[in-house]
Amino acid sequence: MKVMLRQNSAGQLLVYVAKKDLEEEVVSQTEGSEGKIFTLANGWELAIPDLSEPLKLPQTVEAKRLS
């Protein structure tokens, strides 16, 4: 699914999922076998492969929902 990564005014990383009309804060980030894994405030885990460092925001990327 396509998601947009951006920062809010407080500097917190946000993920917006247009198909679900969902915007949530990222509460943790880890490295996994499928790339960078973001855990959202609602409990979702999204895997984003090939994410460039340093992170350039805002950007739209392809993500896979793990849970």
From TrEMBL:
Any single biological process term in GO:
nitrogen fixation
Q: Which Gene3D superfamilies match?
A: NifT/FixU-like (2.40.50.240)
The family database entries (InterPro entries) matched by this protein are listed as:
NifT, NifT/FixU_barrel-like_dom_sf
Q: Where are the transmembrane segments?
A: none
NCBIfam families, from UniProt? nifT_nitrog
Q: What is this protein called?
A: Nitrogen fixation protein FixT
